[in-house]
Amino acid sequence: RRQIKAGELRLDPPKSRKRSPEWSAFAEHYLEEHAKRRCKFTTYHGYRVIIQRHLNPAWKGKLLNQITRNDVRELLRSKQEAGYAVGTLENIKALISGIFSFAYEEEVIS
Known about the structure:
Elements: H1 2-6, H2 23-38, H3 41-59, H4 69-81, H5 86-105
Helix pairs in contact: 2-3, 4-5
């Protein structure tokens, strides 16, 4: 209180928080703004297939900031139990990591 009275402590109003985007919308943004521009066509197409077949069905309706590490582990475990190859699982995991890294760079998540 003394600091406030003396004007030593700044109390800025909280910054307004943007609503986190829906997973599928941000995944599409990632494809168009990152993968399409920086990856070969076959990689871009492979990412689109992974998103459409595996990620969007699993996280339909979820906001990006609602997806947890546990959600990722559960998804990968379910794909492994379904018999997907190790390489496929690694590709799914790498794409998820890339999307979340891009979201962090874009300051969509912190």
